[in-house]
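queue> holo job accepted (beta-D-glucopyranose)
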Amino acid sequence: MNITPPSPSNSSPSPRATPAPDIPHSLTVGDFLVEPLGFHDPRPAFSWKLPPSASTQSAYRLRVAAGSKVWDSGWRESDRSVFVPYEGEPLASRERVTWSVCVRDGNGRELGPSREAGFELGLLAVSDWQSDWIRPAAGTDPTTEPVSWLRRDFDIAGKIQRARLYATARGAFEFTLNGQRVGNDYFTPGWTNYHQRIDTLTYDVTELLRPGSNTLVATLGTGWYAGRLPFGIKQRGPHGLNPELLAQLEIFHYDGSSQVIGTDEHWQATFRGPILSSSIYDGEHYDARRQHADWGPVAVTPNGGNARLTPKPFPAVRVTECLRPVRMGTPAPGRFVFDFGQNMVGWVRIKVPAEKNRTITIRFAEMLNADGTLYTENYRAALSTDSHTPARTGTVEWEPKFTFHGFQFVELSGLPEGVEPEPDWVTGVVLHSDLRRTGDFQSSHEKLNQLQSNIVWGWRGNSLEIPTDCPQRDERLGWTGDAQVFAPTAMFNFDCLAFWKSWLEGMRGEQLADGVIPDVIPSVNEELINRSPGWMDAATFIPWDVHVRTGDLTILEDNFEMMERLVGWYRSQSPEGLPSNIGGFGDWLQPHAQARETPGDWLGAFRGDTPRPFLGAAFYARSARILAQASLALGRQTEARRYAKESETVRAAFVREFFDEQGGLRNTLETQTAYALAIAFDLLPEEWVMKAGAHLARLVEEADGHLRTGFLGTPHLLSALDATGHADLACGLLFRETYPSWFYPINQGATTMWERWNSYSHESGFGDRRMNSFNHYAYGAVGQWLYERIAGLTPDPAHPGYKHFRVRPLFPKQLQYAAARLETPYGPAASRWQRSNDEIALTIEVPPNTSATVDTPALDGLKPLCPGGHAFTFKTPLA
Ligand code: BGC
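queue> job finished
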């Protein structure tokens, strides 16, 4: 093959739309936060990106100012532009910080200063709070999910220079100030484990205040704190029973005086108001006739508890998109069904003709029955119904506050007789944690593009405060296994460093004394502790995967002890070298499994055929290996040696127990998952790897080119085939149309990832309703392979954060082109290849201050190293 080497003379720089100014840009603080208001870290790290003209950085100089505190790093010879630690005096609560950076490029040319970036700290210490936790003194019925209102009227004298509202709740809060909603966040403060950490929000309310009398009102819902969850459990309050509010409005005047309005005994509260109840699972009920009344005293909680109050360290939930219906139907008189054409998470805003006293009912569904009515059986015990009772006849505009639904279809009933549906009656409001989109994958194949879209929507719907399994049924929990398999794919599509760190902090807090990680984080139910391999390993895999993709070391530091304790648990279960007595969820939802439901275990049929002791051993070895790698990355040589040895010992025992010298499985059922994990986790002696790959290929062929893997095996199936010389077979699986395959649900109309390959089929209708989500990201873990091997962008664990990466597209014959673009910590990396009649052209973009190695079979073993700040095109004639 003939290639064009990457030298400046014959590389073709890609045109850039708007020439960027020649200075460092994209300044972020901490975990890539952009100008946060209410920042949490007194000793943050700073990151920036170099302009395209600088291919490397040889030195930087940072200037940080907070009031009279100034820190000037001076010129430092370093190529570091990501997570540069602040070394000035620790920042303090409320401080407004500005900073900028100057750099020198590889030729010593000075670039900068950058534009000045700013951020402001929130309240960092409990002692900053001069307020008390309050709640309505009146009691409530613990079986319903009531909403309360807490209010304070106050006067302002003098000209307001600046005002901040700091707020949080045990429950979910929304504030209005003089009737105007404060901020654009939802479900605040979010879902942490509340007894250890509660997030606080900071809002700039300067513009909402006025001289004279003002009114501050909080609406307080049960939220995740005191709502009904999990499953069909009727009792509410997984974390506590009575929602409480903590808030502090700080007003600063031009004359230097200030005023603080904190929650205390001077507030008033009532349960009487238009929202009758609001529940995450069950929906929200609004009666416009019920005006606020019966304001009474508040109860002050004398001891606010021991939870750490911290400014929210990652983006809150926000509205990120609004959808219009694409179809309407009337399956029964007076029942209007709207189809958004996309499975989504959030709610609908209605704008409908209404009749006084006649309740409008809003129901949701992910799918329709054949007769056009809503299919809701898979919601299980989640009622997912909103309602609005109008106080007068006319047009009603309304949306809920503290519930969310997973749906594509919505049904309205209770409208005036004789009306005809209009498309603008409903708007689909999409809500999730407002994480920045950083990646994009495209190809010449419509279904592959639909798969990518389904993967992205899967994450959007399941990144609401925490990574959830599903967003619609009576679950919506932080299932660890699902997150473990999907994290790398999430990182390719969204900037979720801060999001993962927050969730992992919860995990650390909930790890049991013996090292076990609960099934779901936050932990809500004592029964959800199944000690499951692949689920618990979220504690080791996710810190490592996120580290590799961001270069962040604190995620390893912070979680190191948790990782050690999990590996310690595996060790404690392995008196003979391998874990014995291993339970858990197995290779969850493997299709065509021989496993069956047993009288004592209705989940039996879901656990797949790969024996759990095998899974236990494989994950033990892998987690120990990750721990050794993390130790190395942290410079902990002793631990690195110790854990490398441990992982080697487990690996050797695993091989002895489960493999013969032909790389074939023994003492266990032969499954695709077993081979895939052994190969992908690098557990086999080198000379057996290809043999094991041949066995795996045989199993795939015996299945007529289909997968037979569940949650744990599927993410590794393609890479295991690929790594053992069966890339064609891997591509065949990816492009397979028949059950079970990634395209099969797409052929049945899927717009998100489904929990099962056949959650629905045109042929046989709906799958087992006891476990049938139409928005479950786990099988979307294949997204990683789309970026890494179809388009070709692959991180290099030895140079985390894409400081160096590899471009290794496979050029599958099913495609004319594929392209991926990823906003790395250093800037955009891209890989795009295009097939024409006689050649393939591969164009790559390498961010400044990084380098990339091109490594594709088409280059005949050549692996050109491409410097940063350039684009290159390689052309390879087709044989
Ligand atoms: C959830 C999962 C989870 C599984 C564990 C299910 O109910 O939806 O995706 O991983 O339970 O068995």
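queue> The two ends are 8 Å apart (CA to CA).
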